[in-house]
Amino acid sequence: MKFFKVKTVEETFSLIDEMVGKSGQTEIRPIEEALHFVLAKSVTAAENVPAFDRSTVDGYAVRANDTYGSSESMPGFLTLRGEVRMGEAAALTVGFGEAVYVPTGGMMPPGSDSVIMIEHCEEVAGILNTYRQVAPAENVIKAGEDIREGEMLLEAGTWLRPQELGALAALGITEVEIYRKLKVGYLSSGDEIVPYQTQSLKAGQVRDINYLAITGTAREWHMDVMYGGIVRDDFEAFSKKAKELYDKVDCLILSGGSSVGAKDYTTEVIESLGAPGVFVHGIAIKPGKPTILAVADGKPIIGLPGHPASAMIIFRLFGERILKKLSGERLVKRPERIFARITKNIPSAPGRSDYIRVKLFEQDGEWWAEPIIGKSGLITTLVKSDGLVEIVSKKEGILQGEYVPVIASR
Amino acid sequence: MKFFKVKTVEETFSLIDEMVGKSGQTEIRPIEEALHFVLAKSVTAAENVPAFDRSTVDGYAVRANDTYGSSESMPGFLTLRGEVRMGEAAALTVGFGEAVYVPTGGMMPPGSDSVIMIEHCEEVAGILNTYRQVAPAENVIKAGEDIREGEMLLEAGTWLRPQELGALAALGITEVEIYRKLKVGYLSSGDEIVPYQTQSLKAGQVRDINYLAITGTAREWHMDVMYGGIVRDDFEAFSKKAKELYDKVDCLILSGGSSVGAKDYTTEVIESLGAPGVFVHGIAIKPGKPTILAVADGKPIIGLPGHPASAMIIFRLFGERILKKLSGERLVKRPERIFARITKNIPSAPGRSDYIRVKLFEQDGEWWAEPIIGKSGLITTLVKSDGLVEIVSKKEGILQGEYVPVIASR
Questions:
Q1: Nearest CB to A196 within list B118, B172, B312
Q2: Whether residue A198 is found in the same domain as residue A312
Q3: Which among B326, B351, B374 is the end of a domain?
Q4: Residue A2 included in any domain
Q5: What is the distance of C-alpha A83 from the center of its chain?
Q6: CATH of the domain at B397
Q7: Displacement of CA A409 from its chain's centroid (Å)
Q8: From A207, A261, A335, residue closest to B104, measured CB to CB
Q9: Where would a tag sit more exposed on chain B, N or C end, judged by fewer CB atoms within 10 A?
Q10: pLDDT for B235-263, tens place per residue?
Q11: Lowest-pLDDT range of A42-56, A306-320, B17-31, B396-410
């Protein structure tokens, strides 16, 4: 039996980064079905985007030199040679003193280096009066200005957003190698827990709330879910079911069974699944102290506290980090916090991180965060809340009116 | 032919709220498949959650009165009657001077009103020494404390997050009436646009980047997409294809064709689809000025600018508002902006709203926003950016070091 010291939130994040690697299995997918997957292989551009110099406006392709000195009072005069048609090669050449009409996105004709906007000139019987001068490259996107041939466009580990798919499409790339979707197993334990579909509860029974709340969160993170059902508080049954589910998934989530008391064999069950086993057993956090984190043969196991609000907050904080690392996503530090002013004084024990559920509202152009009072066993505290205010472990509380960072929920 | 005046961003939002209603079609779905749908019918609780008083800790159910005056130096003594088992009715009654063991989540035995934590007492030969006093209801969740019978739990128009599903499960609700998923039609136009799968581009051709970028964004918002392909710049062909797609979808998105020049029949095509037709034709925004918004017989139509970055920014700002209203979602104002300091002076014309693509980085504990320089035709400006800095129309720019709101992209 290992002995564990409660870890701070900061230590827990460091341990996760150290202990959890990526699952590593990849597959090839068409880019139309690759949204929110993680790129497994970097993508290098095989061609320039755009492939040719393009006009960014409706106007006339000219030699910038020929417009120098043009103004409203002293217009320049150019010979209009014709026009470029969209989607076709620019056949006409722009010579000294000449102009060719080019629409937005059209190909720049050879000899031209800039475009004068249609609003800044006037055509009179084949002669173009220019009322402004343009600089070389003005109103032009140069070939390769968006993406340059040979440039690394996207690095392995990139979470594919719509704009990344757009950039892949720009290169004519139709398929990418991505890390396959993770499968998360979820197992509830507790003699009092019954399937949520149960219509008439017997005295002492409660429905499996966490199943919907936790697996819904995993689905939000673009993961598949496998439900292992509900096991009784019995070592043999729990151990057998946990092992069965563990074998089929990339990450195992156990709900309930991690508080002190008759249920401390959860640790034993987890340790039996493989090495190195449990690396966090208790976190200096409120709510959610009785959290267990483990890795067995490369697969993470998350033992959540049983109280619904605690379970969701712990999963949101540590489960996301674990699953993102496992998914192969390159961890890019992005601010995910908005700021609001707290409506009440909130004390906090130093050395412990507190996460306060809050409702946000706007008053006189400022955002305020109103704490939702309620025990961590109440799921409705999360239904009523818009996010979590974080009081980091070194702070001893926050004062009414103070600006606080809020982790917003969607 | 109607005449249009360019609208400000604020006017555009007001017009959207006025012109766009909800599509209104509903269906019944199991709650396990209802994540990110919008609730069509309010849900009222038919029972209490929890159904009985529960302990929130491992400890002993007592009458609070019996513990008054207990302390480390002067413990109280109670007769231990037995224990409550998880998931079963509490059979034993707690009388005067008595205690019954109850695990976390267990049912409170009749007669008891509070729980003393296991850490604060000691059992010696059937007698419980109590080292602390407890108050009535301490460490207890009362029946109905989470959800009260008859209370409205969720209002119609609620976007279902994992915690909402958890709360529904708590009540044993297995199905909900939701607004069905929206179907968004996307049609590209332009003689230069070719399918993104095209391997060898001819001179003057570009691939359909916006298709992936825009429909990916709609998918992110939990919508289905129907692709109408690419039409040539030809009134008859464009009109026919637009009508065909419009008939099959809840909202039609047209890409390209909304800038001045040979393409101004886009307005005519849109107007032919139904009344009241176009309500925004040009917005005082950069990038994205040539935007068209319309409603035809209750279906919104969005005419996006052709430049990829403009199209995505416009769709993110106005498309989301339009589609959320159409989906039946109750618009709840939530702050979606984080704050960062801008690294450069940025001028802006008063009366026009500017959206600056930025990359975020952390330095000395602060977030900084570095503008991504590049024309709105460049998709990679969005690949490189983490969000948009908004310069509202009444501002004349922002100064280096100023704190600015950033609309973060995921």
A1: B172
A2: yes
A3: B326
A4: no
A5: 45
A6: 2.40.340.10
A7: 13
A8: A261
A9: N
A10: 889 999 999 999 999 999 999 754 444 45
A11: B396-410
- Please check whether residues A36 and A169 belong to one and the same domain: yes
- pLDDT level of residue B365 (50, 70, 90 thresholds): confident
ipTM: 0.92
> What residues 277-316 of chain B have any CB closer than 8 A to a CB of chain A?
306-308, 312
Cα dihedral across residues B70, B75, B77, B78: positive or negative: positive
Q: What is the pLDDT of residue B334?
A: 66
Interface test with A, best of B35, B52, B86, B304 (most A CBs within 10 A): B86
Distance from C-alpha of B327 to C-alpha of B159, rounded to nearest angstrom: 10
The CATH number covering residue A229 comes to 3.40.980.10
Torsion, Cα B69 B75 B77 B83, to 10 degrees, reads 100
Name which of A154, A209, A386 is nearest B166 (Cβ-Cβ).
A209
B-proximal residues of A, 250-269, CB under 8 Å: 259-262
- Domain end position, chosen among A305, A326, A347: A326
Query: Distance (Å, rounded) from C-alpha A210 to C-alpha A216?
Result: 9
**CB within 8 Å: A206 and B51:** yes
A174: domain CATH number? Answer: 3.90.105.10
Q: Is residue A3 part of a domain?
A: no
Q: Are residues A261 and A205 in the same domain?
A: yes
Nearest 10 degrees: Cα torsion B133, B139, B145, B146: 160
Q: Are residues A62 and A42 in the same domain?
A: no
pTM of the model: 0.92
Structure tokens at A250: 């990339």
| Domain assignment of residue A374, yes or no | yes
**What are the chain A neighbours of B335 within 8 Å (beta carbons)?**
338, 340, 360, 362, 367, 408
Domain that holds residue A165: 26-46+155-179
Residues B175 and B293 in one domain: no
A190 in contact with chain B, both atoms CB, cutoff 8 A: yes
In chain B, how many domains are there? 4
Same domain, A16 and A31: no
Rounded to whole angstroms, the Cα distance separating B224 from B410 reads 20
From B35, B208, B374, residue closest to A169, measured CB to CB = B208
> Do A285 and A403 belong to one domain?
no
How many angstroms separate the CA of residue B32 from the nearest CA in chain A? 7
Q: Name the minimum distance, in Å, from the CA of A215 to any CA of chain B.
A: 8
CA distance A370 to B333: 15
Three-state DSSP at A143 gives coil
For residue B37, report the phi and psi dihedrals to the nearest 5 degrees. Answer: -90, 165
Can you tell me which residue has the tokens 């037709």? B277
- Both tokens of residue A353? 């991180």
Per CB-CB distance under 8 Å, the chain A contacts of B204 are 52, 84-90, 106-107
**Which of 119-148 (A) contact B at CB < 8 A?**
141, 145-147
- The answer to whether residues A310 and A260 belong to one domain is yes
For chain A, 410 residues long, give each residue's pLDDT as a single digit of tens.
566 789 999 999 999 999 999 999 999 999 999 999 999 999 999 999 999 999 999 999 999 999 999 999 999 999 999 999 988 998 899 999 999 999 999 999 999 999 999 999 999 999 999 999 999 999 999 999 999 999 999 999 999 999 999 999 999 999 999 999 999 999 999 889 999 999 999 999 999 999 999 999 999 999 999 999 999 888 889 999 999 999 999 999 999 754 444 456 888 899 999 999 999 999 999 998 889 999 999 999 999 988 899 999 999 999 999 999 999 999 876 666 778 899 999 999 888 999 999 998 888 878 899 999 888 889 899 888 888 998 988 888 999 999 888 887 76
Q: Which two tokens stand for residue B147?
A: 């959800």
